[in-house]
Amino acid sequence: MTTIYPVILCGGAGTRLWPLSRKSYPKQFVPLIGATSLLQDCAERMRGPADVPYAKPLILTNDAFRFVVPEQLAEIGIDPGPILIEPEGRNTAPAVLAAALYLHASDPDAVMLVAPSDHVVPDKLAFHTAVAAGVDAITTRSDLVTFGIQPDRPETGYGYLKLSHAPTGEGQAVPLERFVEKPDLARAQSMLEDGSYLWNSGIFLFAVRDIIAAFEGHAAQLMDPVRAAVSNAKTDLGFLRLDPEAWSQVEDISIDYAVMEKAPNLSVVPYAAGWSDVGSWSAVHELGEPDAQGVATAGEATAIDCQNVLIRSESSAQEVVALGVQDMIAIAMPDAVLVASMDRAQDVKKAVAALKEKGAKQAESLPVDHRPWGWFESLVIGDRFQVKRIHVHPGAALSLQSHHHRSEHWIVVEGTAKVTIDDEVRLVSENQSVYIPLGAVHRMENPGKVPMVLIEVQTGSYLGEDDIIRYEDIYARG
Length: 478
Description:
Elements: E1 4-9, H1 38-45, E2 58-62, H2 68-75, E3 83-86, H3 92-106, E4 111-116, H4 124-141, E5 144-149, E6 160-163, E7 174-180, H5 185-194, E8 197-207, H6 208-218, H7 223-231, E9 234-236, E10 239-241, H8 244-247, H9 255-260, E11 266-271, H10 281-287, E12 295-298, E13 301-304, E14 307-313, E15 320-323, E16 326-332, E17 337-341, H11 348-357, E18 368-371, E19 374-381, E20 385-392, E21 400-402, E22 406-414, E23 417-421, E24 424-428, E25 433-436, E26 442-445, E27 452-460, E28 469-472
Parallel strand pairs: 1-2, 1-4, 2-3, 3-10, 5-11, 12-14, 13-15, 14-16
Antiparallel strand pairs: 4-8, 5-8, 6-7, 6-8, 7-11, 9-10, 16-17, 18-19, 19-20, 20-27, 21-28, 22-25, 22-27, 23-24, 23-26
Helix pairs in contact: 3-6, 3-7
């Protein structure tokens, strides 16, 4: 029986769901719908049914997220397969080719199922029924398969797939006639009425030998640099870093443009069991199952006499109340609030651009900074002091380091910290504190089996995160 290798693309940094999704921690890692993140939902969906052999997922991500990915998967009991680190984003074509070349080296008969990490596909059984139909098209015709979503409205935010004929239902692949760019509203309405157009989901299924052959035939310029990037990749703490010099020569291009729009052996599996790329707050509103008045809320949010609104609070200490408004989005974060008309949901990226132009850190960074050992957040910042809350995972350790410009005072509020200060090592328990003088070589570790939380008070002339001299680091950071 054919083994299916899930390939999860997890390198995006979208701006359309700002302020919750930001470059430092984009939407695939956020619990937008329910209690788990979109990445976790995707990985769970890619486990496959019990009667079909599915390999561990191969994941492509970037350096900034290399520890977030396995941490989130471990939370739901999934042990990932290889995690390939892209030196820089080069769009989907190089990423898919790198995964195909990597898999082909160990299993030339592999079939790869490629999916973005940030989509919502709620019906797992229906999804795998569609995958089975795609496998049949691969084994009988060596097709390159994509999945088309049955449209339920004249959507202008998606690309479309023109089929050779209108699908007679789900369960079989239909030959693809052509790709269609995002249409205007009139064209979208016409395509909806035609019946032979589906939304382009960006999910693909193909045998690795077939997709490599397609790259060789239609995007040969990618073959040598991507092959070199995979062949010269280096293992680093369980990750596989693609060679940066070779990767820098790779063209930035999507798989649609590079291969799929040119290949003759294409087919589409129609899918109508629910899908969203969660590309805007209006999509989140729809997925949030609004009530009869169109009101959807999340977190500490209250809507009174409202219609067609999405109100979210992302902090348990922050209550958001909407009174007598309609057609509105309000998203409250501890450091930023978005208020927008519902019909401007696709324009949120303009807000991010405006913030970047004025130099606002909220454009790209969250108040919570995720690190390999856990996370921290700044609670109070003054001219010569800063107060942080620091959360350290069980068994994790910060780097052995010192600072030129600040001293620190640590107060443990949960768990126990193992603290190194120059030549002294000691345990610091709840309600105990320790002082780290300026210039002292120090480290904190969590030797326990529960998270350790401490409050850090920094004082000094400069409090930036770049005032760190690292001497040892188990995460191999510079």
